[in-house]
Structure to design on (147 residues):
């Protein structure tokens, strides 16, 4: 199979693969690797090799010692702000969702939530979560206090 990419498309593909790999494997440890880590690395190596061979300078280097293509500091400096923004947004979204679930549990209890129809529970959860999102966007953690 042959795929043809412009240099801009190849760069975009590398960014997508790098960010996707980062997110997918962010909780992985040496003691607990994901089963598909090896194939993911092979895919990244193929994309990196294509970038290197296309002479898109400054993004990928070939490391003779490891015999691997590696991202340069320049590439990481361009991509990591996207990863950091994703992490930041995910943190606030998860916090708002957890607080909304806590509030609903405190308001209705386990039995009340179990008796509530799915749509009602879902829409109320979204409404509460959105309120937390608005607060966090405006004030961050300034108004969070342990009571």
């Amino acid at each position: 199979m042959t795929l043809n990419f412009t240099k801009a498309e190849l760069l975009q593909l590398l960014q997508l693969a790098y960010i996707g790999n980062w997110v997918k494997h962010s909780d992985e440890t040496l003691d607990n690797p994901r089963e598909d880590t090896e194939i993911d690395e092979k895919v990244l190596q193929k994309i990196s090799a294509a970038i290197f061979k296309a002479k898109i300078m400054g993004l990928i280097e070939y490391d003779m010692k490891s015999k691997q293509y590696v991202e340069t500091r320049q590439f990481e400096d361009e991509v990591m702000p996207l990863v950091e923004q994703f992490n930041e947004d995910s943190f606030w979204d998860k916090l708002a969702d957890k607080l909304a679930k806590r509030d609903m549990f405190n308001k209705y209890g386990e039995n009340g939530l179990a008796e509530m129809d799915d749509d009602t529970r879902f829409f109320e959860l979204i409404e509460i979560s959105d309120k937390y999102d608005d607060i966090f966007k405006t004030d961050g953690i300034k108004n969070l206090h342990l009571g």
Q: What stands out?
A: DSSP finds four helices and two strands in the chain.
